[in-house]
Specification:
The protein is an alpha+beta fold and 334 residues long. It is built from five helices and 15 strands. The chain has two domains: 14-164, Glycoside hydrolase family 3 C-terminal domain (Rossmann fold), CATH 3.40.50.1700; 215-332, Sandwich (Immunoglobulin-like), CATH 2.60.40.
């Protein structure tokens, strides 16, 4: 960025201050400070030139010249980055979206840029899930920056340049279509809402998130065959970084209750653990399942209380709610 500011010249870092709590703005950037220029590190042998084009507004409106300018810039770049998503002007509390796709011509912008430069990275900077089905099938790389906060610029840049290996997992189910959801005013979660009751295939399941490395799960152990009142069973497994760079994995522990007289979740999250692993390193991850854990109970209308049923409990461990790597079982005693 270059601009004459009070006769100050040279290279400067610009810090954009996050104000927050502004209606209709996810990020309200209104002021900045300047610090003295920092020397270019000796290790930096080649500068990175970044060019920016609007493409379209967040609400998806654009002039033909806006998209044309973005396409021209992308065709001349080594790598094209397209930032899309929704903010509080599109969807917020008391201001709901009518669909879950990208607004307006955002998807058209992505397709045009990708056609101009096949080395395109899509960055989802959004306050809500969006159905990016075509993009998932066609764009070579997608980075999610969901509610990433005031430091998202630095965080996303670190991921894109390979200075940080991402390990985040999404905390919602990303549906492929609004048709996969029950009626808007039907709040019964058991009718296909969330990973606990949705029977279909989502675009991205709850707990999904990729890394620049890969992980192998093995050696599941359950310390007891029966879970007795006022007791707990231990669950342990080994996880290995099978890739070439260090990374974090978020190991997720779910349960499923079998043979219930009422509808129970397909699976329910009990616990998770974030583990850092160097290339080739193996660590043991441990969890505990207590007899009184909420995931083992359901609400009984007649008793007006949470109750349990005896029976088989499936132990499920994996990288997401849809990517279960290890399975075991324990019998719940009541």
């Amino acid at each position: 960025m270059s601009a004459p500011i009070s006769d100050i010249s040279g290279e400067h870092k610009v810090y954009l201050r996050f104000l927050g709590k502004a209606r209709h703005f996810l990020f309200n950037l209104r002021s900045f400070n300047l610090t003295p220029a920092e020397p270019i590190p000796a290790a930096a042998t080649k500068a990175v030139e970044v060019s920016v084009a609007l493409g379209c507004a967040v609400n998806g409106t654009a002039q033909p010249s806006d998209i044309a300018a973005a396409v021209k810039m992308a065709s001349q770049a080594d790598v094209a980055l397209v930032f899309v998503g929704v903010d509080q002007a599109i969807g917020a509390e008391g201001h709901d979206r009518s669909h879950i796709g990208l607004p307006g011509v955002q998807s058209d912008l992505i397709k045009a840029v990708l056609a101009a430069n096949p080395r395109t990275v899509l960055v989802i900077s959004s306050n809500a899930p969006v159905a990016i089905n075509w993009e998932q099938e066609n764009v070579p790389a997608i980075v999610g920056g969901i509610f990433a906060g005031q430091e998202q610029g630095h965080a996303i840049a670190d991921v894109l340049f390979g200075d940080y290996n991402p390990a985040g997992k999404i905390t919602t189910t990303w549906y492929a279509s609004v048709d996969d959801l029950p009626h808007f005013h039907d709040y019964d979660v058991r009718k296909g809402r969330t990973y606990m009751y949705y029977q279909g295939k989502p675009l991205y399941p709850f707990g999904h998130g990729l890394s620049y490395t890969t992980f192998e799960y093995a050696n599941l152990e359950v310390t007891a065959s029966a879970l007795k009142p006022q007791k707990a069973v231990g669950i342990a497994l080994s996880i290995t970084n099978t890739g070439r760079i260090a990374g974090d994995e978020i190991v997720q522990f779910y349960v499923h209750v079998n043979g219930s007289k009422v509808q129970r979740p397909i699976k329910q999250l009990v616990d998770f653990a974030r583990v850092h692993l160097e290339p080739g390193e193996t660590k043991t991850v441990s969890f505990a399942l207590g007899h009184d854990d909420q995931a083992l109970k359901y609400w009984d209308e007649a008793q007006q209380d949470f109750v349990q049923e005896p029976g088989k409990i499936d132990i499920l461990v994996g990288a997401s709610s849809a990517d279960i790597r290890l399975k075991g079982a324990v019998n719940l005693m009541v």
